[in-house]
Each structure stands twice: as C-alpha cells, then as structure tokens.
Amino acid sequence: MAISESEPLLQDDTVDGAVDYKGNPVTRSTTGGWRSASFIIGMFYKHIRSQILAFHFSFSNDCHNFFFGEPGVEIAERFAYYGISSNMITYLTGPLHESTAAAAINVNTWLGVASMLPLLGAFVADSYLGRYRTIFFSSLLYVLGLGLLTLSATLPSLRPPDCENNTSVCPSPTQFQVGFFFLSLYLVALAQGGHKPNVQAFGADQFDPSDPEENKSKSSFFNWWYFGMCGGTVISLWLLNYIQDNLSWGLGFGVPSISMMVALVVFLLGTKTYRYCLKKGKNPFVSILEVFVAAARNRQGPSSTTDKESLLPTDYEATEVPVHGSSTQFKFLDRAAAPKNLDSPKNSWSVCSMSQVEDAKMVLQLVPVWVTCLIYGVVFAQSTTFFTKQGSTMERGMGFGFQIPPATLQTFISLSVVAVIPIYDWIFVPATRAFTGLPSGVTLLQRIGIGLFLSVISMVVAAIVEAQRLVVARDAGLIDKPTETVPMSVWWLLPQYILFGLSDVFAMVGLQEFFYDQVPDGMRSVGLALYLSIFGVGSFISGFLISVIEMVTTKDNGESWFSNNLNRAHLDYFYWLVAGLSAIELGLFLYFSKSHIYKNQRRNVLSM
C-alpha cells in the first residue's frame, strides 16, 4: 500500500516538539531551517523575491546563498538601538541642553536598565506569551517608542528652543518635554528587553538539534546572526550618526522607526514557514524552584533513592528523555528526589523527578561561567568609552580635509567581525572538525576561552599604545595642551579594535550559543537574557572601578587616571588593571570549564 510504505519517511521528516502556525505537526522539508531564519536575521536567499507572494519556498540548506535584502527584525533592531545609544549623549548635551555630567548619568542609567530588561522579556516569553507573540508585541512597542522619539525631536512644543547665537545661554526644557523624551526612550528600552533574547532564541528554534545537518546549521546560525547584527551596527554608526549630527535629529530617529516597521512586515511574511516549539510540562521557573525547595525540605534525608521515579507526581513532564540516572554534580540537589518519609503525601514541592533535578543542576552550573565572564563585559565597555577618547586626541585626517569621527572608530570592531565570521564558518570550523570530529569544530567553552584570551591581548595592546601616545604627547610638549592634536596616527588604535572584534567572534558568539543550548528547553529565552546581562553587569562593574580609582587617585590632590586632560591621565594603567583582571578571570574560567557537563552528556547519564 502506497500510504503505509511512505509512512516511515513521513515520520522521519516530522520535527518532534514543534508545530506550525496552525498548531499542526511540522516537517523539515517545508518549515524551519535557513528559509525561516532568513526572515529573522534579514539575510535573504537569491530567489526569494520571485516567490515571496506565493509563500512557497524551495531552498537548499546552503547558507552561502545569502545576500542582504530587506531588513530582518535583528538587523533593524540593532540599526535602531545603536542609532540611539551611540549618539545619545550628543543629543542630551545638545538639543536638550543637559550638562555633561547629567547626560552621562542618564545615558549610563538607560544602558544599564536596557541591559537588564531582557530578563523580564525572556520570563514573559517562556512563561506566558511564547517567543513569536513577544517578538511581535515588542516590535510594535519599538515602533511606538521610536515614533515618539521622532516627535520629541521634531515638534517645537516637545523640545526646548535652541541656544542663543554665539552664547552659552540655553533655555532649560520644561518638565513635560523632558518627561516625554524619557518616556519615549524607556519605551525603546522596554521593547529591546522583549526583543533581544527572544528573536535570537526563535531563530535558533528553526533548527532541529536531533537532525545532524540541522544541528550543524544551528551552529552556523549563531555565526551569521552576529554577522547580521554587526552589519546593522556598522550602517547605524556611519549613516545615522551622520544624519543626526549634520542633517536632522528628527530624521535620525525617524529612519530607524521606518526600518523597524518594514522589518516587522518581513517577519510576519515568514509566519507560515516558522516552527513553534511546544511547551512541555509546567512553568520552567516554578519547576526549578521546586527542586531547591524540596532539596531544602529533605536535607535530613538520604541523598538518593533506588526508585526515585515511582515518587514523582504523575502529571509532571520535565524533559523528553527517560529518567533513570543522576549526574555527579551538585549531589545535594538529589535530595529533592528522595523524601525523608516515603509514606508522606507526594507533591511537587516535597519530591521531584530526577529530570527536574537535572534541569536545576543545568541552571546552577551556568553560574560559574556567567561569573567568570563578567570582566569580559568590563572589556566590552571600554570600546565605547575610553577607546573613543583616545582616538579623539590623535591625528584622524584621511585627506581632502576629512577627519574620522571618534565614535565611528567603533565600526572597526564590527568590520573585523564581518570579515572574520565567514572565514571562521567556512575554513576554521571544517579544519578543526577534521581533528576533533565535533560538528562545530571546537566545544562551546573552548570557543569562549579563545575569545577571553584574545580580549586579554586586546587590553595589553591598548595599554602599550596608550603608553606610547603619552610619550609622544610629552615629547611634543603637549602635556598641558589637551586641545592640541597629538602627532600620532589614529591607525595605531586599529590593532586593539581588530583584536577586540576577533574576541567577539569567539567569546560573544560562543556565549550566545552556550546560554541558548545549555539551559533547559523551556528556558532558552532566559538563557540568552543571562548572556546579555553579562554586559549590563560588566558596565556597572566598569563604572564602579572607575569611581573607586577616581576617588583613590585624586586623594591628596593627586592626578586622576581619568583626568579631563588625557595627556596627564593614565588610561594605560587602567588598561593594565583590566588586562590583569581578565587574565585572572580566564584562569578561573578554565578551572570551572573542566568540570562542566554539557546537556547532551547529562541526558546520556539520565538514559543509563
């Protein structure tokens, strides 16, 4: 019979744990993969334009066929976010007439809040709305926030009058004008919090980890994801900053608003091709909390039982794997599956399945990796602050009277990433795969470790270059002439920017994939939010270090390491300090990495 003969083939093509937009089972041949991820990243296959209205796609799984077309939600979001954050201090000290100190405080506060809000967005997605709906509503909120920012910069009633000609007399904005602006700005931060962790997780969901080819493509997805993100950043830093500084702030905020609207339409066009992951069991946050509560309640009992599975509530399903064994990590949590009294009433707050316990262990073992990457977040913070300040004092001429804007130097990080990611994906991975046999070439923690090492080298090079800049400034007699240009080319900064970009290819992309892949299946958005929080906390740590050093070095009328006169400052000392802290962090990271149990290894233990 024809139907029965084809049935095994259909079953093999079905993707477990996923449905289409109507809730029906999905197949690999008609959904997911690069065909769906292209709508999300914003990289389109060659023949999509001729077929987009038919909603019928016939693509190969060859990611080399990408080209940049309409903006996907990720490229558009990064385009908008960096178009605001990279130049916000200029707007606050310019059209809004804030002092430099007040503007810096407001920018740092906004960036810190924006870096932590993805934890809220991930919680909402994983517990309630799901990723697709959260992305949709966050994109609408993004358009709203950017639209209100455009109005605040365009309408005369929503911004203060310009300063008087050739004077420093500037009328203060009204409370309503300030309130309207910051309401718009924090709407963008809230939208970013719901957008950032879920778009990437939803894109990775389009690849089935149980299929060898799609699992290999998923690793490439994280590379090309960061490639697209850096592409959006480069365009933003060059195009939007120029528009804002030379044409109009209203236009500079309006362009990303329009870009987000177009990207939302593109995202919706892919609705029929997406795979939507099914929720399994109870709320993942409650499930993890139950383990810790049960382990605390059973702390006086045995650390294991011979028949743990018979104790678990019948309506609980933590993972899709059989539940038998237990990993050797965090054995105290095994008490959650071993109640003190076997005759006591069984409930999920007093006895848990071993699958539940292993999920809790999975989350707990992320903590050492997260902590030992925080100084990497400190290094990341320097690229947008002191690296730029260094460049502002150096020769930046490129001929014909054109000078490189200091903030634009950040694009060299993104450009190096854009240049290296194809080499990494097409040369490095196949070459290392031949030796290791791993689909990704190296393990996730090995990739992150290489990136951390490169970040140390980047800070060492930055310290050496800054020390040389100070020598040149002293030899030229510019120690007390901070407004004069130091006769040293800005291209001396290029190595530290390139090294930092290389470290991003390994560490940042590796961290993205690690915190997506190594969390329980129901908490993947939260995993990516934890990854993002590394940079938020890293920024706070950087600010704390600067405050402490400022207080210590200026005691007894001493010269600050961060003096407004950079020719008397000592950024080189600060870079050496960060390099030393990064080296210590790398050592701790290597120590904890040796004991890390990957999710697939943990599941093998459970199946024994």
UniProtKB/TrEMBL annotation:
<feature type="transmembrane region" description="Helical">
    <location>
        <begin position="249"/>
        <end position="270"/>
    </location>
</feature>
<feature type="transmembrane region" description="Helical">
    <location>
        <begin position="224"/>
        <end position="243"/>
    </location>
</feature>
<feature type="transmembrane region" description="Helical">
    <location>
        <begin position="175"/>
        <end position="191"/>
    </location>
</feature>
<feature type="transmembrane region" description="Helical">
    <location>
        <begin position="448"/>
        <end position="465"/>
    </location>
</feature>
<keyword id="KW-0813">Transport</keyword>
<dbReference type="InterPro" id="IPR018456">
    <property type="entry name" value="PTR2_symporter_CS"/>
</dbReference>
<dbReference type="Pfam" id="PF00854">
    <property type="entry name" value="PTR2"/>
</dbReference>
<keyword id="KW-0597">Phosphoprotein</keyword>
<keyword id="KW-0472">Membrane</keyword>
<dbReference type="GO" id="GO:0071916">
    <property type="term" value="F:dipeptide transmembrane transporter activity"/>
</dbReference>
<dbReference type="GO" id="GO:0080054">
    <property type="term" value="F:low-affinity nitrate transmembrane transporter activity"/>
</dbReference>
<dbReference type="InterPro" id="IPR000109">
    <property type="entry name" value="POT_fam"/>
</dbReference>
<dbReference type="InterPro" id="IPR044739">
    <property type="entry name" value="NRT1/PTR"/>
</dbReference>
<feature type="transmembrane region" description="Helical">
    <location>
        <begin position="101"/>
        <end position="123"/>
    </location>
</feature>
<feature type="transmembrane region" description="Helical">
    <location>
        <begin position="573"/>
        <end position="593"/>
    </location>
</feature>
<feature type="transmembrane region" description="Helical">
    <location>
        <begin position="135"/>
        <end position="155"/>
    </location>
</feature>
<feature type="transmembrane region" description="Helical">
    <location>
        <begin position="497"/>
        <end position="516"/>
    </location>
</feature>
<dbReference type="GO" id="GO:0042937">
    <property type="term" value="F:tripeptide transmembrane transporter activity"/>
</dbReference>
<dbReference type="InterPro" id="IPR036259">
    <property type="entry name" value="MFS_trans_sf"/>
</dbReference>
<comment type="similarity">
    <text>Belongs to the major facilitator superfamily. Proton-dependent oligopeptide transporter (POT/PTR) (TC 2.A.17) family.</text>
</comment>
<keyword id="KW-0812">Transmembrane</keyword>
<feature type="transmembrane region" description="Helical">
    <location>
        <begin position="407"/>
        <end position="427"/>
    </location>
</feature>
<protein>
    <submittedName>
        <fullName>Proton-dependent oligopeptide transporter family</fullName>
    </submittedName>
</protein>
<feature type="transmembrane region" description="Helical">
    <location>
        <begin position="363"/>
        <end position="387"/>
    </location>
</feature>
<keyword id="KW-1133">Transmembrane helix</keyword>
<dbReference type="GO" id="GO:0009705">
    <property type="term" value="C:plant-type vacuole membrane"/>
</dbReference>
<feature type="transmembrane region" description="Helical">
    <location>
        <begin position="528"/>
        <end position="553"/>
    </location>
</feature>
